[in-house]
Amino acid sequence: MFHEEFIKRLDEAQRQGLLTYQREKPLSKCSSFRIGGPVRYALYPATEEGVLEIFRLTAEHSIPLRVVGSGSNILFPDEGVDGAILFTRDLSFVNIEGTTIKAGAGIGLTTLASLVQKEGLSGLEFGYGIPGSLGGGVYMNAGAYDGELSYVVKKSRYYDRASGSFGTLSGVEHGFSYRHSAYMGTDKVILDVELELKEGDPAEIRATMDDYMARRKSKQPLEYPSAGSAFKRYPGYFTAKLIDEAGLKGYAVGDAAVSEKHAGFVINKGNATSAQVKELMALITQRIYELHGIHIEREIIYF
Ligand SMILES: Cc1cc2nc3c(=O)[nH]c(=O)nc-3n(C[C@H](O)[C@H](O)[C@H](O)COP(=O)(O)OP(=O)(O)OC[C@H]3O[C@@H](n4cnc5c(N)ncnc54)[C@H](O)[C@@H]3O)c2cc1C
């Protein structure tokens, strides 16, 4: 189906500075896994009005719409997406007032961690090296090295597609737990986030961040595309250790392989497909079940 009127309205919105867009954008270029066919419309709102315009236009033209941050926790389908994706990339303002930070959902966690370090603000060191956006981080309650977003998020503002209204979640309303927030399974798009940090010494904060990054580089297969840890922790077990002990390090389906460096990562060795990753993930899950009687749960989102 050719959406002539829809494209005309997108062009208008683009001229007004509300958004930019690309047609038939390869999702392999929008994902840390480097996997995925084209999305029919890749939409990048520049402002909140742009977000609203995207919701309006896609609803009016019955074009399915999904939201993506940095695409660092997602496996996109090989056949692509016959609809639209709103990428939050350009919703990336940052306001710092004392120890309170307000930032757009699209800003990268690593960029934000570096910015606040320069201001002598501590609490986001753990985010340095996580390749996701702030919004994606809140959605997943991203964390590392004993830190997680739940410790520093004060408020988040969203637009709810279901009700067509804006709203705010504060503190416990986020329902944070391990890699979980109240945003999961809803129609809410996180627009911006307020964080409460603590004053600290910029040099010390920098040293902690550098230490975390060095640990990532030494332990994680950052030289290959991936979507981070493939599976969640299972209570009482280290999933990567289970996979390693099952003899699966290096095991591959096509170009999708269990990393030799860190068994918790499934990597793309070149031209892995979504189907190969799924087959490998299913095989790992099955093998761990046979050996231990437990069902490990994937962390990677199948789009
Ligand atoms: C090398 C590597 C290392 C990693 N290390 C870590 C780590 O240490 N800790 C960790 O927790 N994760 C880690 N990850 C995984 C990933 O970076 C995080 O889960 C991150 O929070 C995902 O953010 P994103 O913006 O990329 O989200 P995406 O992958 O774009 O999206 C993930 C989900 O969030 C939703 N979403 C994104 N933005 C919004 C929004 N604004 N509003 C509503 N929903 C939204 C999407 O719809 C999707 O369902 C790693 C990944 C890689 C590749």
Plain-language structure description:
The chain is of the alpha+beta class. The protein has 3 domains: 84 residues, 2-Layer Sandwich (Uridine Diphospho-n-acetylenolpyruvylglucosamine Reductase, domain 2), CATH 3.30.43; 111 residues, Uridine Diphospho-n-acetylenolpyruvylglucosamine Reductase, domain 3, CATH 3.30.465; 81 residues, Uridine Diphospho-n-acetylenolpyruvylglucosamine Reductase, domain 1. The chain contains 7 helices and 19 strands. Strands 6-7-13-11-12 form a 5-stranded antiparallel beta sheet, covered by helices on one side. A 4-stranded mixed beta sheet has the order 1-2-5-3, covered by helices on one side. β11 and β12 form a beta hairpin. The longest helix has 19 residues. It is globular, with a radius of gyration of 20 Å. It starts with a helix and ends with a strand. The structure holds flavin-adenine dinucleotide. The site of flavin-adenine dinucleotide (FAD) has 32 residues, from β3, α4, β9, β13 and β15. The site of flavin-adenine dinucleotide has 32 residues, from β3, α4, β9, β13 and β15.
